[in-house]
Amino acid sequence: MTASAIETMAQAQADSGPQNRAQALARLKFADVGFRLLTQLSATLVLLLLLGVAISLFIGSWPAFRAFGFDFFISDAWSPPKERFGAYAAIYGTLATSAIAMLIGVPVGLGIAVFLTELCPPSLRRPIGVAIELLAGIPSIIYGIWGVYYLKPIMQAYVQPAIIATLGAVPGVGLLFAGPPLGYGVLTAGLVLAVMILPFVTAISRDVFETVPPVLKEAAYGVGATTFEVVGGIVIPYARVGVIGGVMLALGRALGETMAVTFVIGNATRVSASILAQGTTISAMIANQFADADPGLFTASLLALGFILFIITFIVLAAARLMLARMAIKEGR
Amino acid sequence: MDALYARRRRRNVVWTALSYAATVFGLTWLVLILGSLIWNGVGGLSLDVFTKMTAPPGVAGGLLNSIVGSLIVTAFGLVIAAPLGILAGTYLAEYGRHARIATVIRFVNDILLSAPSIVIGLFVYQLFVVPFGHFSALAGGVALAIIATPIVVRTTEDMLNLVPSTLREAATALGMPRSLVIRQVAYRAVRTGLVTGVLLAIARMTGETAPLIFTSLGNSLFTADPTQPMSSLPLIIYEFARSPYPEQQKLAWTGALIVTFAVLSLSIAARALSASRGGEK
Questions:
Q1: What ipTM does the predicted assembly reach?
Q2: Closest of B108, B61, B59, B109 to residue B81, by C-alpha
Q3: Does the CB of B90 have a partner CB in chain A at under 8 Å?
Q4: Do the Cβ atoms of A93 and A279 come closer than 8 Å?
Q5: 3-state helix, strand and coil shares in percent for chain B, rounded to the nearest 5
Q6: In terms of C-beta density within 10 A (0-12 exposed, 13-18 middle, 19 or more buried), how is residue B252 classed?
Q7: Among A18, A66, A242, B254, which one is least packed by beta carbons within 10 Å?
Q8: Which residues in chain A (90-109) have CB-CB distances under 8 A to chain B?
Q9: Burial code of A292-327, b = ≥16 C-beta within 10 A, e = fewer?
Q10: What is the pLDDT of residue A1?
């Protein structure tokens, strides 16, 4: 196609006869417009994909929303035999695991970004940066199998008993850490998610930290600020919007993560105060139950869960992108 | 004054130490995960893994049908995602660079880039599995394509934006029509960049599991028929890792090692390729 287009062009230039020339040019014009339309069509298809996802999931979940109404969001009943379904337990689990993941993942991810941009010897910067990015490359199923064979026994034997003995004994707060050490549960899932989102927080924070003009940092060092004061007083305030954008992007990942969570959360459709208890998330529930679901209300309810997940992540990701776009404007890109 | 100085010093030391600790924490996980993969996976690597089918418990089996299935489903995804992504990226960078609709498409593409893959799986289930009444490898390929396309769109656009306008202007001045300027000049200038995007997309598709559960489903038999359910490595890992039989668990680890090795070498290859171009990021 390309070679023939070139030939056509050469022909158009070589042919002296006005008739041939006009024909060749017309063919060229046709190919040109065709290619343009093709790219336009592809780009529009990308746009339609997102609309398609939203519409098809909404249509699929409509029977569930119609049958249960607003109750679907606030009921934690999930009983296929009785055809009673509610999304509360799944929504709660999704938010709880993501919150734990953010609490652990964001400070650690920022710490690594600070290390890479301010503290690391230049020769180690690239290898360590690549190593952290490799964490992002490991497929989520691998986190799952690792979590269930290694992390779960460790949590059960060491971490959870220690938490129950210390934090669990505190009145009030103890409720959050009550229950037997099962290994599976919300906390374990949150921890796995934390490691999965680390590289995203680090990569974006590092990129926005690097946009801080060196003169600002040099000025602060020049008046005697310590490294910590430069990071806390100059770098982070300057890069704040970008960092928040990166954090939201990581949150979007955590909310929708499926395979790793499915392995370690225990898959119990209930809401417990304790983060050591077993739970479920929207994505884990869909992954676990979809294959066995009867067509009808059961499938519709699972699709409704998917629709809710789509809406939640859409809002989070859209906010993240808007913030990152603001950061890009600030940079003058 | 000295007390203030000491306090500032102390705070600096503490925060610096925490930053080091965070890095060690992150690297430890990488070492632990890769270490356990090699520890558990290498022992199971044998010719059988690549020549025998997955088998019921008690029968010696391999992963042949899953490996072939993974390759086929990923190839389907690639055949759709690579042209679609490159063309859409071309529109964003070349024709629609300043158009309002391009801003919207760019935004939507960024959302799709990190949309939960399980939601994409449900979408494809509604679109391709429900109407045809059965699961198929083709549906799995479409799901993977939807996940991979935004990656290709993004890298293509970023790469084409790096092409100097003078290059395009020079070609245009010679009388080349726009489409030829793009295909003959711009694409050539960033060929490695485009390949990088495609490699990253393959890496992403290779490890994807969630959307395949409702699309290609898995199959314990060997099949190359795209209209039938088909096994794939991530699916078999998901199934065997939860199996109570040690020999299946062992195969799960071996499969996990193969998948991780494939994904990481693809992304390292992509990285090396883009680094070799110097200016390109």
A1: 0.89
A2: B109
A3: yes
A4: yes
A5: 75, 0, 20
A6: buried
A7: A18
A8: 107-109
A9: ebeeebbbbbbbbbbbbbbebbbebbbbbbebbbeb
A10: 46
Please tell me the predicted confidence (pLDDT) of residue B74.
Answer: 94
Written as one string, the DSSP assignment of B80-96 is HHHHHHHHHHHIIIIIS
The 10s digit of each residue's pLDDT in A216-272 is 999 999 999 999 999 999 999 999 888 998 999 999 999 999 999 999 998 888 888
Tell which A residues from 276 to 295 touch B, by Cβ distance under 8 Å: 283, 286-287, 290-291
Q: Nearest 5°: CA angle at A140, between A256 and B112?
A: 45
Which among B91, B122, B253 is the nearest to A39, CB-wise?
A: B91
Given a cut of 90, whether residue A29 has pLDDT beyond it is no
Mutate to test the interface with B, among A32, A49, A57, A126 (most CBs of B within 10 A): A49
Measured between its terminal Cα atoms, the distance across chain A in Å is: 36
Angle, CA A266 vertex, CA B258 and CA B147 arms, to 5°: 45
Interface subset of A 197-226, CB within 8 angstroms of B: 198-199, 202, 226
How many angstroms separate the CA atoms of A61 and B103, rounded?
30
Residue whose pair of structure tokens reads 């370690």 in the numeric block:
A264
Whether residue B231 contacts residue B69, with contact meaning beta carbons closer than 8 Å, is answered with yes
From chain A, pick out residues whose CB is under 8 angstroms from the CB of B8.
226, 229
Distance from CA of A259 to the nearest CA of B (A): 6
Distance separating alpha carbons of residues B236 and B242, to the nearest angstrom: 10
Residues in chain B within 8 Å Cβ distance of A59 = 126
Strands (E), chain A: 78-79, 84-85
Q: Are A131 and B42 in contact (CB under 8 A)?
A: no
